[in-house]
């Protein structure tokens, strides 16, 4: 939405104010209602919901064990192209809707189970970064002084690296592996949360109700956790939603380079990376995991977009 | 103007310093004997002792750091374990390719991104706007290496035999050689001097080298090889820039001064050109600096996909080969480039926005 | 009286919001005579600014002018092509706005912004336009105009910026100037200077002014005629003397009573109870009826059922109220303002 000029703002104000005064609904409920009206949020929630369902019901959806080598079990070849009976594939052949990978495993089953890993990667990296970032940002903003300076300069240094590069460097030291990759991605995304939290804390800190709590004798920590942080949540929620998307993408990137999840783990980035040299002969092995990543990342990005619009009432004329 | 530039330059120093601290620590954090880590497992006791003396490993940590700073300042990043050659020499060979790739991608991303953003903003709330932004959203969600692989397949295999076919890997077709401009011009240079190294560095920009030596066969071929990688690296920043341009332009078009321009009788198309674009570009320029990070990361991943011998691919290979001097040197290098580019972007901001220009 | 220079006929503007369509300007009909000042007054949100923007064809999204005519010396601005309107705006009809600091483009020098008007409408080259702009800056009372040409808007005070806006608007000596709350954002002392400047330039150039304001003091000082707006409609129209002396509409009366007057001792200022109705949910009948104190004592059922027309209540005096309406037999149902 564009910033409305004074005249429209005035006209819109009348509509909005009366709406607010007319039926006082709780803020979160209003936000939720606004969120549901956003097209981007709708699409995002559908994509995410779909992926969550796939992850939960993976054992039911997946026709095979994701790590089962099918050579000798069925009449198939390595890297065989997809065979879908509905699309005219010979009914006598076993159905593998996304084909067979280089280790003679069912790609579709691996993809389905991969949704569990990817969603977990997203949630874990964001949770870890969130805890570290919010903590650092909150104490920097709340206490100020040299502590603030120190923390924020360190954050500046982390931001001084392109994020994937720093993650690569960290993995280089710690050694390749999914756990180290997650740690690296969490560390490089800390500054975002720290900055946002610090800014929110600074703006909330100066508001009257915080001074009021101080006058009443509440301790600094108490004020921080009961008064300041809940008010700083809005931008953090948006950032975290987008962060899940970013985390999934970066983890896939590291895995693609062989620095993240290691085979035989059914991780989408690893699936892509281990078959990248077969792109010219068996493109299906690269195509499908990529699509899965796009859908998941797109879902969280769109939801984040919607959240940002819904949580910022100024933009809702 | 100058005062601000100096202030901004000074503010980059702590960040650069921090980057050096981080990369220094990386090497110290490697588990095991640093000598074996830096020189390889097969190194002899005597070499290790000399290594320890050279790097002051027997000295306090801050002295070691001082040695490190001194070396970096002299462009000495140590020797590669795998190739037994100075890391700086490898940088001279590898960096031009990566810069070429990132630079082409930057141009594509900026020009196309801004054009798409303007297109969408001017058709606000129409099918054209919604459609372009939907595509941009998908563009942002794509893993860059996946996009690269798919492009390599589509243009390199599926379109084989058509005029749209493009080479899916390498920098030059086999048989073509990029002859350094100093050889073409018959320059004689003493080996190992700074001038010679610089000339070699420049000559490794194949496209530029072909241009100044009028070698059109190599020029065309090098460009054709760069199209797919550059488009791949450009896609995500392009989508980000397009979104940013659109929302920024929409914001500016609703501002009072745009209304003033209309009230003055400035025709519609000129309103966008003269009064809206300049203002709308300010946040886009900020984003541009940050997108350099995406470009460099994208270059690392894309080089692997397209078999290009740049710093990104070298870095990944070095990690697997446990070639830590290269990892350390390249990390410093890429981070420094990133900081410097952001510095340039910030300084260009003062040129664009008179409000941040100091009086 | 000669033919009015600007005739606004049944001008209507709708804002499409999620809550429904809001009729922000409801069939406004007004005349502006050459060299005269017409003030449009009303509370915030009554549609006076949108009226001004509708006349100039500058209504922002999601608003849209849906009907009516804007005749500038007989030619309908609404029927012109975008290129034709661009030639009129800033040349024969210009506009200045409420907040001068945001109305000037921050990335261009003020000199360039003024010169642009000359280049657009007078076909001057860069040099001529610059010279003309320097002269104009002097005329609007900017000291050291040569140097000020190179200044950026953020380097100027609000009053200074508004002078620049006025200079820009009057560069081509337009027939009509629409000023949308030109002094609201300024300090009181600067307000008086700006109004004085406008009056002086009006005299010099013979420009007719539509002045939008909520400040009745400004009205008393500047206006020849006054239109009072409420919820998108004109509720009363008269020459300034008549309006202040014998206001007919209860809303106008209330407005006048809500202003502190010099000398007269008042115990308490009157406040108009309630708020401007939501434009997407207008009351039945007279739009002011829910807030109207007079109606509560009078016994008039039409107030809450039928919307009154703008009827003639005296020479050049029109009012939209059932309680002041002439009885049916003497009414000529005169809507036009002649």
* Biggest beta sheet summary of chain B: none
Helix % of chain B is: over 70%
- Give the termini separation of chain B: 8 Å
Shape of chain B: globular
Number of helices of chain B: 15
What report would you give on this structure?
- The complex is a heterotrimer of chains A (317), B (359) and C (338).
- Helices cover 70% and strands 0% of the residues of chain A.
- Chain A has helices at 6-22, 27-37, 39-56, 58-61, 107-143, 145-159, 163-174, 178-205, 208-215, 220-256, 268-274, 284-311.
- Chain A is elongated, with a radius of gyration of 24 Å.
- Chain B is built from 15 helices and no strands.
- Chain B has helices at residues 2-29, 34-39, 45-54, 61-73, 87-122, 127-141, 144-158, 181-184, 194-203, 206-212, 216-253, 256-264, 268-306, 311-320, 324-352.
- Chain C is of the alpha/beta class.
- Chain C has twelve helices and twelve strands.
- In chain C, strands 6-7-8-3-9-10-12-11 form an eight-stranded mixed beta sheet, sandwiched between helices. Chain C has a four-stranded antiparallel beta sheet with strand order 2-1-4-5.
- Chain C is globular.
- Residues 328-338 of chain C have low confidence and may be disordered.
- Classes of the chains: A mainly alpha (317), B mainly alpha (359), C alpha/beta (338).
- Chains in contact: A-B, A-C, B-C.
Quick tags:
heterotrimer, A: 317 residues, mainly alpha, MetI-like fold, disordered N terminus, C: 338 residues, alpha/beta, eight-stranded mixed sheet, four-stranded antiparallel sheet, 12 helices, disordered C terminus
